[in-house]
Structure formats: C-alpha cells, structure tokens
Write a structure and sequence with these properties.
The complex is a heterodimer of chains A (about 220) and B (about 230). Chain A has about 220 residues and is α/β, with parallel strands linked by helices. Chain A has one domain: 3-Layer(aba) Sandwich (Rossmann fold). Helices cover about 35% and strands about 30% of the residues of chain A. The longest helix of chain A is centred in the middle third of the chain and has 15 residues. Chain A starts with a strand and ends with a strand. Chain B is mainly alpha-helical and about 230 residues long. Chain B has a single domain, classed as Orthogonal Bundle (MetI-like fold), CATH 1.10.3720.10. In chain B, helix 4 packs across helix 5 and helix 10 runs antiparallel to helix 11. Classes of the chains: A alpha/beta (about 220), B mainly alpha (about 230). Chains A and B meet through helix 2, strand 6 and helix 3 of A and helix 6 and helix 7 of B.
C-alpha cells in the first residue's frame, strides 16, 4: 500500500516537558489505525499536530508523497485532513448548514452540496433531526452529525479524537457502526481512543502511545 | 415648579410633529447611526485580533482601550475641536461645527465601548469554533466570521451599547457641533439648551424620545439575543 502520511522526527514540548517524541509514523492510503494510550499520553496532541492545530518540531512531514511544511499549514492539507474534536462543536445555525459548511469552503456548487448533504444525513441516520437546532441534539446525535460533517467532505484522512467518550451504550454503538463503515472506505481513519470495541474492529491497526512514544503496533506498512 | 403644563406641551409637540423637534431627532438619529456603521467593522475586527491573537503589544492595547472608556467625552470633544479648528492640522477641511464633526466625535466615543465589549464576547467564544471552522477547510477570514457569528449576541450588544452611548452624548457634541440651530443641534444638546432657557416643554419632549430610544435599544437587544439573551 502506498503511504498517505509519513512523519519523521516529531517532537512536541510543553515548556520543559516532552509530550510527544516519535521517530517515525506512517499511515497507508485507506488504512485505519487506532492510537491507544492512557490519559495524558499525547494522543490528542498528536492528532492536533497532524491537523495543524498544534505547532511542533517535525523533521519531515510527507502527505501523499509530497513533502510539506506545517507553518503555515497548507490549504492542500486543510482540505485533505479533517479533525473531529472529542466533544464536537456544532455551529449554532442549522444541521444542514453544519453539514454544508466545509463544502461551501471548498466552493462546491449548490446542487452538489445538496446531494452530498442528503446522502450524509441518510448515512448518519439524522434525516429526521434536520429541523432540530444543533444545540438540542443529544450527545450521540452530535457525534454522528460531526462524523457526517467530516465524511461529506470525502477527506483523505479523518482524525477522530475519542469519538465514543461520554456516550451512552446506544449512542456508542451507533457511533462505532458509523466508524466501522468509514473505516472500510477510501478515507484513511486515525482514531485516538481506548475503546476496546473500536480497537478490535476488523482491519484496524493498533498503536500504543506511552509518555509520548509509540511503543507497539500490531501491523506495519 | 409646575411640571404638568410643560409635560402637556411636550406631548403636544410630539403629537403635532413639531418640525423643529423632528429635525433635532432626525439629526441625532442619523449622525449616531452613521458613526456606528462606520466604526463598527474596524472595532469588531480589532476586537477579534485582540481576543484571539498573541502579539507583543496586545495587553497594552487592551489596557489602553479600557482606559479610553473612562475618558471624559468633553476632553474627546476638546481634542477633536483642536484638530478641526481653523488653526488645527485639519482646519482647512472646514469640518468644525458640522454634523461630520459630531460623527467623528461619536466614532471616537463609541470605539472603546465597542472594542471592549466585543473583545469580551469573542474571548467567551468556545475555542473549538475557530478550530472546527479551520479543520473543515475555512480560510482565516471565514473562520473568524464564523466565530463572530457564534458570539453574535455579544457583538450585537457591543454595537447597541455604543449606539446608546453615542445618541445620548452631550459634551463632545456641544464642543465640536456648536449646537447650531437647524444644523448641529441634536437631542442632548437641545435638552441642555432649552432647560437652561427655562423652556422645559421641548426638553421634556426630547427627553422622552431619548428614553424611548434607550428602551427600544434594549428591546432590540433582547430580541436579537433570543434564546441567548437574559432569561
């Protein structure tokens, strides 16, 4: 499989403390990975660095074979990589506007936006919530809306931060079901979590992050 | 002092639509509105930068803007007067004692109110708003506008507060406007003048209009805030 993301020499310090120290990190196109690790191990920070939200020292960052510098974060990566927060934020507008937001940023025409939004609503099972203000959605519905909002953009790499945290059993199952469908598609998915069910999803490569270092991987490129 | 008669006369002036009174109200309304419309975009942009960006003089700019809140408006009027007076650097423009001078004064007075309130509103925005917008592919400007939209109630409150301050301002308006009948006489300066002359009817009528404007501004603010407003 060809490499989608290759990072070498990644260091992140908060003051004197080194929170991430990774020599090499690679993901293949279409691959799904889980980064497991205890709280404070650096999982979220790693995802935020990859998505350009957190600065870090990186010797080499390659995306789709092309070397990139992350400061400033290139628009190419901003359109190819989508990060979803642990507690996703939905804009206080409408669900449709939330799903359309990234498509508008990419300049897609209205009919194409409408088609993709309708498809994403159906995919996430949120069609009936279309008239519900985003603030009134349940935690599980918000997570599904955030996944649909990310999926609709058809990114090359989707970064999910603890997508099943703080969800009840039903909402968690819905979310895992959506992620398993995402993981089987063309989009590469990188998930930071310690949810055993997500870790055990078929085809999922599992890495462990301990004190900022990748210590174990059940598969390699 | 008999207050009933001047109050009755004040109502009569308002009901009859006294042309002089309407002219004064109109001048106040349009000068305040133009000032706020002109100063709002730069104020909101500056507030966003102050709230979200880190740069060396940031703290100093915030403190200076907060200090301007307590700056006496009459001193602002004095400074603008000196700048616009015939011997001042902008004397050739002939703006002193014109509505333009009043608008300039209103803009200066509104500036710190709008910036300080808007900074507070933007600082209160969830950090995830800007990040989410950026992660979904928004350019910086679009992500900034999205953030402002998410805190629109606070930003609208900043604008409305500044408008309320401008339309009721008297010291600066007298200094740079000169309270010229039919040209620069607005509601607060007319109230001050008519009261000093002992003509309470017009003063009371204009006072009622100002109070109505203040109430209207607050009603509009509460309506604009919707569910985000005070419960």
């Amino acid at each position: 499989m060809s490499a989608l993301l290759e990072i070498r020499g990644l260091r992140k310090n908060f003051g004197e403390r080194t929170v991430i120290d990774i020599d090499e990190f690679r993901m293949a196109r279409g691959e799904s990975c889980v980064i497991a690790g205890s709280n404070g191990s650096g999982k979220t920070t790693l995802l935020r660095i990859i998505s350009g939200l957190e600065p870090a020292h990186i010797s080499e960052y390659r995306f789709d074979g092309r070397r990139e510098t992350l400061s400033p974060y290139p628009d190419r990566l901003r359109h190819a990589i989508v990060y979803v927060h642990q507690h996703p934020y939905l804009f206080h507008t409408t669900l449709r506007h939330n799903l359309e937001y990234g498509l508008k940023c990419r300049g897609l025409p209205a009919p194409e936006r409408a088609r993709r939004v309708a498809e994403a609503l159906e995919w996430s099972g949120l069609t009936e919530c279309l008239q519900t203000p985003p603030a009134k959605l349940s935690g599980g519905e918000k997570q599904r809306a955030a996944l649909a909002r990310a999926r609709v953009l058809e990114p090359d790499l989707l970064l999910l931060d603890e997508p099943t945290a703080n969800l009840d059993q039903t909402a968690r199952q819905h979310t895992i079901e959506l992620i398993s469908r995402l993981a089987g598609g063309r989009t590469s998915v990188l998930i930071a979590c310690h949810d055993q069910e997500l870790i055990r999803l078929p085809g999922m490569r599992v890495m462990r992050l301990e004190d900022g270092r990748l210590t174990r991987s059940n598969g390699a490129l | 002092m008999d207050l009933l008669e001047p109050t009755r006369q004040a109502f009569a002036l308002l009901i009859e639509g006294d042309p002089e009174l309407l002219g004064i109200i109109w001048l106040s309304a349009w000068t305040s509105t133009v000032a706020i419309v002109l100063i709002a975009p730069p104020c909101i942009a500056l507030a966003f930068v102050l709230a979200k960006k880190q740069f060396p003089a940031r703290r100093a700019v915030i403190v200076a803007t907060q200090a301007l809140l307590s700056f006496p408006t009459v001193v602002i009027g004095l400074i603008i007067y000196l700048l616009l007076s015939r011997r001042g650097p902008f004397g050739d423009w002939g703006l002193l004692f014109t509505p333009t001078a009043i608008i300039t004064g209103y803009m200066v007075i509104a500036f710190p109110i709008m910036v300080v309130f808007a900074v507070s509103a933007v600082q209160g925005a969830d950090q995830r708003v800007y990040e989410t917008a950026r992660c979904l592919g928004a350019a910086r400007l679009r992500a900034a506008l999205t953030t402002l939209w998410e805190v629109r109630f606070g930003v609208v409150a900043a604008v409305i507060n500044a408008f309320g301050r401008a339309i009721s301002e008297v010291g600066c308006a007298i200094m740079v406007g000169g309270n010229i009948d039919g040209l620069t006489r607005n509601m607060p300066t007319a109230i001050a003048l008519e009261t000093s002359k002992g003509d309470f009817a017009q003063g009371i009528a204009l006072g009622m209009v100002l109070i109505f404007v203040a109430l209207l501004v607050n009603v509009v603010l509460a309506w604009a805030q919707g569910e985000g407003g005070l419960k």
